[in-house]
TrEMBL record:
Species: Symploca sp. SIO1C4
Entry coiled-coil feature ranges: none
Signal peptide: none
Gene Ontology MF: a single term: purine nucleosidase activity
Keywords in alphabetical order: Glycosidase, Hydrolase
Origin: domain of life: Bacteria
UniProt-recorded name of the protein: Nucleoside hydrolase
Domain Inosine/uridine-preferring nucleoside hydrolase as annotated: residue spans: 9-320
Swiss-Prot/TrEMBL GO biological process terms: purine nucleoside catabolic process
Gene Ontology cellular component terms for the protein in this record: cytosol
Keyword Cell inner membrane included in the entry's annotation: no
Length: 326
């Protein structure tokens, strides 16, 4: 059993820059008992993604080190599709470029190693052990979670909730006009999870794009609060933020994955609507699109709502939580 003050949580992640910020928050949050970080391919390949998670843990140095387990190397059906062009060639802002004053690497060889356990087994074991107390916070494509459902549906269905960073309900996609990146990479897995019967909270682009982090704020924070963590945050976000500067005219980034952790900590940060949602697995132009039935005359007895979709966020309160935890 977990301490009654804390909730057992697993983060499932593809090891990118905003994933790293989300993991910093979770490691520093007393209300969450981060049991494990399960890793999969998405922003970057699974080995590099696991190294990125270990890097974050090594920098934060939490009292209790969560297990880090590698899982799926590619989507259920599709070929892999990464975002190295956005997150950097290592998925984490190309940390090898940073040196100390004496020329030594600021981010030397890792000392931590991933577990030999398979991520999907870790998810199933945790579902069995913690049941409805357990929340999974999914920050990448949903391949590990879908694979766990396919391997042992009854056991995974014991978890209390999955908070998913993914999809877009009333706003356009980001990787395509129709699709958000995590659902685009593995639409088949996203649809398996939509059909899981597990309570789902969808932290999609509707709210994630309302949580911007300007570059100048990160630089001010790193100046004022000098630490290994603030230096790391300033370093790893450089390339990611330059992508938004060059492509969207905003020098900063969106806190997609940190917001999902924020919602797992404090669901009152967002307002949600229960909707019936499917994910397009085949569309020529719409692959990975999350489609919510928003019609007034929707038939909820045939298509019962399967997702609590976040539509509004209290950005000010979320940003306070973010800074409190980094
Ligand atoms: C999502 O895509 C990834 O690149 C980010 O880490 C985030 O999980 C946003 O669409
Ligand atoms: Ca991610």
């Amino acid at each position: 059993m977990s301490n009654s003050q804390t909730r057992p949580v697993i983060i499932d992640t593809d090891g990118g820059v905003d994933d790293a910020l989300a993991i910093v928050m979770a490691l520093n949050c007393q209300q969450l008992d981060l049991k494990a970080v399960t890793v999969l391919a998405g922003n970057i390949n699974v080995n590099q993604a696991a190294n990125n998670v270990l890097r974050v843990i090594e920098i934060v140095q939490p009292k209790q080190t969560p297990l880090v387990a590698k899982g799926c190397e590619k989507p259920l059906v599709r070929p892999p599709f990464n975002a190295a062009g956005i997150h950097g060639s290592d998925g984490l802002g190309e940390l090898h470029q940073f040196k100390n004053a004496d020329g030594s690497p600021r981010y030397p060889q890792l000392t931590l190693e991933p577990s030999s356990e398979d991520a999907v087994d870790v998810l199933l074991k945790a579902a069995q052990e913690y049941g409805s107390e357990l929340a999974i916070v999914a920050l990448g494509p949903l391949t590990n979670i879908a694979t766990a459902l396919q391997r042992d549906r009854n056991t995974l269905q014991k978890v209390g909730r999955i908070v998913i960073m993914g999809g877009a309900v009333k706003v356009p996609g980001n990787i395509s006009a129709a699709a958000e990146f995590n659902f685009f990479v593995d639409p088949d897995a996203a649809q398996v999870v939509m059909e899981s019967g597990i309570p789902l909270t969808l932290v999609g682009l509707d709210v994630a794009m309302k949580a911007p982090l300007p570059r100048k704020d990160v630089e001010n924070y790193a100046q004022k609060q000098r630490s290994l963590v603030s230096q790391f945050i300033a370093d790893c976000t450089g390339i990611y933020m330059a992508f938004y500067r060059d492509n969207e005219g905003f020098h900063g980034c969106y806190l997609h994955d940190p917001l999902a952790v924020g919602v797992a900590i404090d669901p009152s940060l967002v307002s949600t609507e229960s909707v019936y949602m499917v994910v397009e697995t085949e569309g020529r132009f719409t692959s990975g699109m999350s489609l919510a039935d928003l019609r007034d005359r929707r038939d909820e007895s045939t298509f019962p709502p399967n997702v609590d979709a976040c539509l509004e966020v209290d950005t000010e309160r979320f940003m306070k939580l973010f800074y409190d935890l980094i």
